[in-house]
Amino acid sequence: MSVAEARRRHSLSPRARRRVGETGPLPPPASFVVAETEVDLTGLDGDVLPYVAKAAVEAMPAGPVHLAAGPDAAVIRHADELSLAGLRRRLNEPSTDPQAGGANVTLAVSRLIAETLPPEPGQAGTLVIGAAVERPAIVRTGDGDPAIAIRSLARLTFAYHGELLGRDDAARFLTAVKRRLEAPWTSAG
Question: What global pTM score does this model have?
C-alpha cells in the first residue's frame, strides 16, 4: 500500500467510517459555483428577507420570477408582480402547500456570518444573506469626503449551477442585488 492510499484510507474519522460502512459510499458532491460580496444593510428596517426578495426579483432578467424563501418553503409564484409590502406579506404567510418546484431562486437568511447552500436542480441559484455584523467602514459624506462610520454589514452569497448561468450573468445579478439593497427604500418598495 502506498502512502497516498494510506492517507486516503484514513481521511475519515472512525465514526464517519462506520457511517459510510453502514450506508454505503457517499454521493459525489453537487457541482456549483459560488459568488459572494459584502452588502451594507444599515438603511433597512426589521426583517431583511423581504428586501432581499425584492432586490432579487428586480435583478432577475425579464420573465416570471418564482421565489422560494428557504429550501423547503412554498414557492411564491410571480414574485416579480409583488411590491415590497406584498412580498413581506407572502413571506410571512404560513405555507399551505409544500414546494412543488419551479422556483427560479431560493432565498435564505443565515445566522452564520457566511453560509453557502447548494442550488436546487433547474434553479438559477440560491441566494443567502449572512448575519449582519456592525463594524467600522469608510463612507462618503455629503461633500464626498471619506469618513469612518459604524455600518451593519452582511455577506451575500450566491451559489449557482455554472451550466445554467454564466459567471458574468451571476456577477451582474449579485451586483444588482447589492446595489438595490444599499439604495434608499420607499415604503412601497
Answer: 0.78
- pLDDT tens for residues 128-185? 999 999 999 999 999 999 999 999 999 999 999 888 888 999 999 999 999 999 998 8
Amino acid, single-letter form, for residue 149: A
Q: Residue 37: CB partners within 8 Å, gap ≥ 6?
A: 155, 156, 174, 175, 178
Q: For residues 43 and 22, give the distance between their C-alpha atoms in angstroms, rounded to a whole number.
A: 51
Residue 31 contacts residue 165 (beta carbons within 8 Å): no
Three-class secondary structure of residue 37 per DSSP: strand
E strands present in the chain: 33-40, 67-68, 75-76, 105-109, 125-129, 133-140, 146-160
C-alpha cell at 83: 411590491
- Cα(133)–Cα(30) distance, integer angstroms: 30
Report the amino acid identity of residue 19.
R
pLDDT in tens, 136-146: 999 999 999 99
User: Superfamily assignment of 29-182 in CATH?
Assistant: Chloramphenicol acetyltransferase-like domain (3.30.559.10)
Annotated domain spans of the chain? 29-182
Q: Residue written as cell 439593497?
A: 181
